[in-house]
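Cross-check.
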Amino acid sequence: MRFETSKGFISIFVSGAVIKDKKVLLLHRKDPDVWEFPSGNIEYDEHPSETAKREVKEETNLDVLVEKLLAIGSTIRPDKEHEIVLSFLCRPRSSKVTLGEEDHSEYKWFTLGEIKKIKNLATSVQSVLKELSSYL
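Predicted model, tokenized:
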């Protein structure tokens, strides 16, 4: 969802922070060049937790259990868009990741230490890193 205000655009979307063995799954987006959670827009009449589940499935082919709302992140991106993300804590029910969209070129399971070294970490991940860290 994207809204225009007098000061600029606000975007609201949902992400799934998939945690397994003290690591989180991140996907490498080609354009812009960032590492991010599986994420996307809420569809009409869809609960945000269902959006997280659907987006993880569409982008990774993983079936997940959505445990809870991990955090609500809010940040101003480098392009000056105000980004709000509802990040849900997810646990995989399966283990084989298959990238499902052309938007992503690769995936990796990251530890907290590895995440902190990523120079092109998506602002949506950065905005919930504090809450995420207690699970890694």
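Helices lie at 48-60, 112-116, 123-126, 129-133. The first strand starts at residue 2 and ends at 5. Passed to J.P. for a second look.
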